[in-house]
Amino acid sequence: MNHTKRPFQPIENYGIIGNLKTVALVSLQGSIDFMCAPNFDSPTVFATMLDSRKGGFFAVEPDLENFTSKQLYLPGTAILLTRYFSDAGIAELTDFMPIEKGNVALNSAIVRQIKTVRGSINFKVSCVPRFGYSESDYETECLETEIKFTCKKENLQINMISDKALRVNKKNGYSEFTLKEGEVATIVIEFLENDEKGQDFEFYKEQSYHQTKDFWINWINKTSYTGRYSELIRRSAITLKLLTSVKHGSVVAAPTFGLPEAIGGNRNWDYRYTWIRDAAFTMYAFLKLGFNDEATAFIDWIFSLCQQIDLQLVYQIDGETSIEEKELKHFEGYRSSKPVRIGNAAAKQLQIDIYGELIDTIYIYNKSYKPITYEFWTLIEKQIAQVIKNWKKADHGIWEIRSEKKEFLHTRLMCWVALDRAIKIAEHRSFPYPENEWHQIRSDIYNDIYHNFWSEKLGAWVQYKGATHVDASVLLMPLTHFISPIEPRWLSTMKVIDEELLVDVLVYRYNNGLRNIDGLEGEEGAFNMCSFWFIEALAKSGELERAVENFEKMIGYANHLHLFSEELGKKGEHLGNFPQAFTHLALISAAVELNKQIERRTSKL
Questions:
Q1: Which one, of 286, 280, 275, lies nearest residue 240 by Cα?
Q2: Are 188 and 201 in contact (CB under 8 A)?
Q3: CA distances from residue 422 to 77, 311, 355, 409, 413 in whole angstroms, order as listed
Q4: What percent of the chain has pLDDT over 70?
Q5: How far is CA 415 from the centre of its chain?
Q6: What is the pLDDT of residue 511?
């Protein structure tokens, strides 16, 4: 089942398309090198990013010597254009996944429209599916303009249909044709489960583009945000929307797995699940921008889950709780970065901070959009009971430390946030609650953080009780309104973060190399989300000029489509799963804060 070896592309050389069920990563050369189908957390059907020989891909290649290529999104959409330039001609590839407002039953499909802009160009198209993480065999049936790839083990069929002749070569789909100037060819692949019936080819060719374009433009125009950095914010919002399940209301942390945090290293995780923390932060960003329907769908999803089971850290996108971590030993890994893992053992960790992130988002939802019901309030009371029971415990923390549990500052901070926001909801809505008990515990947590996590010697709040070093998650202290951003202790903490965790505008989560804090070997890159947290904290602390400059410099690290992965390496290369929700929601939050602070300063002039 091997195919010709294909060189690994830099992670930043990709754009994404999607249909709110799954996404596909499209390289600068027009090759789809990663896709799980038919859903975000399904096995891969294309995975050349993780194995250059047997991963699978779907490529469109113009027969042009020494061509260069560029990519762009149609403004306000997730429709991706790849353009090829050479002396002999110019070609254009338009990629999208059809989506229709209100139609969640639309089959997952990819439409690829190939056009010659100048000259007469020969094209080669290769569809090389590899089902079940490249481990499941399949059968191929070829008609003149249709190929069916059927994998009984995965109960999945891929239909490749086109207005050009198709043929099979070693069980792979192939087509070769010439387009003269102005001519267009269309090639579609559908992903069908349980003997589903596909759409007519004419729908894909004549209607799906306009429906998909209208959907995205109508959606992005719902935003209430009109300030600075609008185009950057809109692109990040579309990226977050692409990671959201239209069926369930959940959101994945990233659509990929196994992309390394250091080339050749072993920090290679599966992010195709819904972390309560990440999803809550994402909904916070949506609420800031006026995308209230997404927040409502997530709140409904959480409400349904909490009625059935106690809140846990990580869920499958449909709310299922069984997530087992294992290694795909047959995959070589991105640029030989092994192991390649699916599932995530963090699902079994104790991370008490999730209550704070979730209740903070519910607080914003209740305050700025729609009142929650009393029935929902009773579920919040259940969550607060867990906080009261567990807030003094050590846990694995926001960074999912795989060594011993500790009393992390961020966890304790989020326990305070949970109590604080729950009290505010109750008082705003006059809900009954044990006032004396909750107020006392909120004060106890505050005093614990303020006094017992402060290091006089270091002049900063530290990562965990008894630590002698800082952690970038401390940046959330002013962002969650625990501490004033101009208080001397906070300004001192910012100075220590600046000295210990910053390289220009790049912020590291913690200095693991000296202390092996997380119990894992090897290095990792600078954490993009933390860089945007630092920028937001700068703006709140009165260092607006530096904050604006840092923001502009950070945006310079985005890829050509303004997409970010999780981390940046020593050469500024993108590392980790891509694109990452955490980074894009932190970008949105920082940009909104910068706009607010600039407006305040301008109004005083």
A1: 286
A2: yes
A3: 37, 16, 10, 20, 14
A4: 96
A5: 25
A6: 84
